[in-house]
Design goal:
Elements (H helix, E strand, L loop, with lengths): L1 H7 L13 H10 L7 E2 L2 E2 L27
Antiparallel strand pairs: 1-2
Length: 71
């Protein structure tokens, strides 16, 4: 994923952000910032080749992950 997105969005992108992290914002917009996951019998119900990845495009930092379970 990171290699593919790196090919699409270069760090020298024309749009300039004050913090210098324009590419990270664009990658985040392309990938999205949330996911809805089905749960069956108390387990995440993903397909054989599906997975959930947490991607940080702006360098290592502490983040919080929020999980909301609706019944």
């Amino acid at each position: 994923m990171l290699l593919g997105l790196g090919d699409i969005v270069k760090n020298d992108f024309r749009f300039k952000h004050a913090e210098g992290n324009s590419a990270a914002h664009i990658k985040s917009t392309l990938v999205g910032c949330s996911v809805t996951v089905p749960v069956k019998d108390g387990k995440i119900a993903l397909g054989r080749w599906q997975g959930i990845y947490f991607c940080e495009f702006d360098g290592a930092r502490k983040r919080k992950v929020w999980v909301l379970v609706n019944k």
